[in-house]
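Tutorial handout. Part one gives the primary structure; part two gives the three-dimensional structure as tokens.
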Amino acid sequence: MWQSYTNGFKMYLQLEKSLSGNSVEAYLHDVDKLQQFLEAKALQTQPESMDLATLREFLRWVHEMGFTATSQARILSGIKAFYKYLLLEDVIKENPAELLEAPKLKRTLPDVLAVHEIDAMLSTLDQSSEEGIRNKAIIETMFSCGLRVSETVGLKISDIFKQDGFIKVVGKGNKERLVPIGSVAIKFIDYYLEYVRNHQQIKAADVDILFLNRRGAKLSRVMIFYIIKKMAAEAGIKKSISPHTLRHSFATCMVEAGADLRAVQQMLGHESITTTEIYTHLDRDYLRTVITDFHPRGKK
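Part two.
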């Protein structure tokens, strides 16, 4: 029975929730872990006969397996979604996962890059090489628009509206949004198009994809990770850096410059303003400066 229910769950996530392939796989892996737990404990429990006590024992098992609190919360989210689906399909009458509680997560402030650090990373690129020209265009675009790595590798030439200063981005759940793009990013995109991309033999499936690898095919997400990690290491930056760091840095710069949080929410493509607040934390030194400069009891 598990297989038929997980197949239905997969279709639900793809068609009704419009989730990306990566998100669908993540949810299915969460349900698979529940099945692994039942096998490990020699339990024959079927999805429709699951109870709260067994699910709580599953969460204890996940904890004992050494998963981080963040991973545990991710797994719980998948299990809750699965049982919500079963409830919608009338497979179950009551949701046993409804009262499950996630582990408390420590709110840590992710690393952000200052503009001078991004400039230091860009200075490591060899601008006489095709790879260096492409990578500069990638970084400038990601930082200019606050793009996710998946949005960057999927960006199309036909979605760049240079005259209007906007790009069309396809985000999570295939939702489209318009994001402003700065003149610096456009300049380096044009340079990449003229001196690199226009001279490549491009795979038929990727003729409209902006950023390509040496073989004329769409870049992978992993390749973007590798490029950014390598640049940070060569620039001597010791922070924990990933492609998402550029997105977070974009949002933080916008908020610290006085941008409206709702506008930043739209540019990032967040459904909830709460998510934007998490991504656009204000640096503690910046907060200290605000207190010092503006609070009547904060002035020195």
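Part three, for discussion. The CA atoms of residues 14 and 145 lie 27 Å apart. Residues 115-289 form a domain with the hpI Integrase; Chain A fold (CATH 1.10.443.10).
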